[in-house]
Amino acid sequence: MRLYSYHRSTTSYRVRSALNLKGLAYELEAVDLTEGAQHTADYKALNPGAGVPTLVLDDGTVLTQSLAILEYLDAVAPEPLLLPQDPIQRAKVQAAAHTVALDIHPINNLRVVQRLKGTHGFSAEAAQAWMCHWMAEGFAALEAQLGDDGPFSFGQTITLADLCLVAQAYNAHRWGLSLDPYPKVQRVEAACLALPEIQAAHPDAPQNAKDS
């Protein structure tokens, strides 16, 4: 498999984490979002949405959108299972994951910041305030959803919710948002970062940061 990824992309971080946890071999292909590599004709032929990640399977099948990729990986390599089989637990995990992936991330990604600065005249400080405001709102909602019965979001095993959370926490640190008001989020982040598979997926890990 080949994963088209940008090291600081939180969506790419989620997929790298899942691939590592499941022990699946893959090659990394760097897509430098800051240089506009996602807008080249060759890349848009793979991913018309001009985003990352893009996962190309061994047979040439192309998958896009991190949550769709993660669900595919769970289906073909269910160990560890990132989405619980119990319907209630599955819904809770998905709700927490969606709080990050659908509520926080879409208004906090690079294209939004570039638009705010380039079209609407936001200063760097105003753009940072925008990012932190929406992350703070999202983390407050996420904090209320997380469980108390284990190191991870919902117990003793890592799930899709954790992969979304730890990636968004990285973005919070980058933009200077304190996570002190969210002790459960901090607990989950620490549990995730203790895992070697998550460490290897981290944006600052040498094998991922080489595309900077």
What does this protein look like?
There is one protein chain. This protein has 212 residues and is of the alpha+beta class. The protein has 2 domains: 2-80, Glutaredoxin (3-Layer(aba) Sandwich); 87-197, Glutathione S-transferase Yfyf (Class Pi), Chain A, domain 2, CATH 1.20.1050.10. It contains 10 helices and 4 strands, in the order βαβαββαααααααα. The protein has a 4-stranded mixed sheet with strand order 2-1-3-4, with helices on one face. Strand 3 and strand 4 (62-64) form a beta hairpin. Helix 1 (10-21) packs parallel to helix 3 (66-76), helix 1 packs across helix 7 and helix 4 (87-104) runs antiparallel to helix 6 (124-145). This is Maleylpyruvate isomerase. Residues 86-212 form the GST C-terminal domain.
Q: Summarize the amount of helix as a percent range.
A: 40-55%
Number of strands: 4
Category from helices, strands and their pairing: alpha+beta
CATH class category label of the largest domain = Mainly Alpha
Task: Quote the average pLDDT.
Answer: 95
By CATH, the topology of the largest domain is Glutathione S-transferase Yfyf (Class Pi), Chain A, domain 2
Describe the protein's topology.
Layout: E1 2-5, H1 10-21, E2 27-30, H2 41-46, E3 54-56, E4 62-64, H3 66-76, H4 87-104, H5 110-118, H6 124-145, H7 160-175, H8 183-193, H9 196-201, H10 206-209
Parallel strand pairs: 1-2
Antiparallel strand pairs: 1-3, 3-4
